[in-house]
Amino acid sequence: MSDVHVSFGARAALKGLNLSLGQGEIFALLGRNGSGKTTLMRALTGQIRVTSGEVRVFAKDPGREAQPRRLMSLVPQDIALYPRLTVRENLEVMGGMAGLSRHEIPQRVEQAMAVTRVENRQHDLIEHLSGGYKRRANIAAALLTQPKLLLLDEPTVGVDVEARLALHQTLRDLREGGTSILLTTHDLDEARALSDRVGILASGRLAETGPIGEILRRMFGDSREIVVGLSREPTEPMEAILKELGLAPTANPLAWNSWSAEVGSLGRLETALEQHGIDIHEIRLREPGLEQVLTRIEGDQG
Ligand SMILES: Nc1ncnc2c1ncn2[C@@H]1O[C@H](COP(=O)(O)OP(=O)(O)OP(=O)(O)O)[C@@H](O)[C@H]1O
To answer: What is the ipTM of this complex?
Structure first.
């Protein structure tokens, strides 16, 4: 997509977005609630018309032509399956609705269940499955048409670690088979573990795109966040000392932070805090997470 703008009335949801996806690439979109992730996906599937700019999927406009829409599948965040049917029954019904012939359905259902590893639950009712299996079945339904581009809206939200790893493996297997994958997530660790590139959406713009390791290096270099957890809320004189030591308040009144690339800075800070009689609960280094990345971007955007 190039220079894509989408507005809902006076509200601009996407403001000049450029993005291209390679074959067999996993691309993770990161951003706050309301930053435009779902709007971007719906623009790609042709569900919403863009206000201006160009969207091309397999060289065609999905807003006007059916062909690119047939080559992609969107896995919504909500489970779009019949709770009172089994996994297999759901997939058979969905296959019919997707326009597959009776002759094609059994084989496609087997393939979709194999990739998502739900065969052992194929005779269970959806309503009896765990959250992780429901999500896998949801993805299986999207795979029946053998899409070349798979779009997933927060595929792992609310599932436990084991189910999350199983879902990641499914997505990697699909990538190996040449499927391009665009997913949204709030989880930087997930993006790090899974994606070839990420795009960080902030206020309808892609503020950063690239491999997550490169983005973090570019933004933070070698510096790491030092977080000081105070034992009690600081008095005004204590606040003055904390600021003098280079610390800044965070949203949590008991947590103050600073950034440093020096190896010894944590120990020196700890000693200085002790000398000033400031009672601390803990002091630690924190790897940058999505919150730190977004705060930095928003700070740069003013
Ligand atoms: N149909 C609509 N009508 C009006 N405003 C909309 C519509 N869809 C989205 N918006 C607005 O566009 C902006 C982007 O929304 P979008 O749903 O794309 O964000 P998101 O990043 O997917 O958020 P979330 O993480 O909560 O799913 C928001 O301000 C939202 O309120």
So the answer is: 0.93
